[in-house]
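Objective 1b: paired records.
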Amino acid sequence: MAAVWERTGGLAALAQRVLEPLAFQTDRTAIFAVPDGLHVRCVAAVNGGEPLRSHPLVGELYPANAGATSRGYFAFLDSNERRALISGRVFATFTGLTKVDEHELERLIVETVARGYAYSEGEYDYATRAIAVPIMLRGRPVGSLSLGESKHPARPDDIRDHLPALQGAAEQLSALLDNRANSAVVARQTKTVRAH
């Protein structure tokens, strides 16, 4: 997917079309992140209410061991691929709730896969909670879509109440990415045919 987007561009702009209505509907911050080594990197974010951070989120890295935004991607990788990435790594601690033990992290991943979404509270930042789902492209996770909120002040609804909206947005974004990837492949094939 990275190779396709290097040629066609517009990944953040494409994601904005899904993030903006999601953030507005849920009154939360919507984040689209893609893999970057043992992290996922935010490539697009929209605040739906109170900003999640005092600084821009685009470009922020979320580590594989801390928080829903990264777990929404890593948990849904093929288990052998995930173990090859994570096994034997030394992980940083961000809060007292950050999991750094490989077995504890695997337990969280198993729970995430069973639920179909990731949930975190205070793992990466004490003051925030989030839910996340994978963005799938042809049966493989290529990133995550998440909703995040500050824990203070308290809200009248639970962030998990917005899971159906998040899942629907993830399906929309997956379809947009698949259509763009198909268009890029067709354009490349047409260019190759013309060259001959």
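Objective 1b, second protein:
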Amino acid sequence: MTQLLDPAPAFVAGPGYAFDNSSDHPVAQFACLAAAYDPFTIERLSATGVGEGWHCLEIGAGNGSVARWLADRVGPTGRVLATDLDIRRIPSHPGLVAERHDIVHDPLPQAAFDLIHARLVLQHLPERRAVLARLLTALRPGGWLQIDEFDVSYGPVLLAPDAGSAELYERFLAAKARLFDAAGGRAVWGRECPAQLREAGFTDLDPQPRVVLWQAGHPGLELLVSHLDGLRERLLAQGMTESQLDEVRTVMRHPEFRAVSPVVYSVHARRPR
């Protein structure tokens, strides 16, 4: 197929991104993300009216689960461009083009998309305000943007085997939030996103928050378990010990454990007509 965007260099995990997607850890991470958050993401995408003939951009497509859904939705006359720094895990699918692209540095076509979606991408980027300005111009007038992001400041333990287990889980969450912030991310950006979209010139803002109950086996909780491997060295640098990381894994898989998920905000916005 014709190259739609200028190619980005091969993926190298940089100081502004906490995860190393060149390793094997993202396989489990992407599977958990899809299982935990695709239903809400797709519910919200459906509300934009996306359908036959639309041109869509999926930023940070991961394993391509949302991009494939979009490709089926827009049909043979539409087009979905799925981008990421590492596109090896995006499978071939009718109507879907996958291209390596750095949303911070690489150009985007002007007024080219009816819908742009990004999930859990911009919270990692110190340049997120500049990216929002670029996304505005990449949309066609009246086009939709959907940003799905966390606010991890909320997520209390409701039940744990004992008080020490609850405290250890909360210590783990705090260490993870610190390492994201140290890498230039913003762990609470979900709640700040709507105001920054308005400042960037978007209209028709519609932020929708959602939390769910987590217990052993929930894919959202298993996503945190996958972080114990993918972020292990960085968690140790934030003061966690090897034994604590092993123990918190056991806590999160304990049949009595119950916690509230962090808030995920799905924010709709539009480019003015």
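Helices lie at 25-47, 65-74, 128-138, 163-182, 189-200, 219-230, 232-237, 242-252. The chain is about 40% helix and 20% strand.
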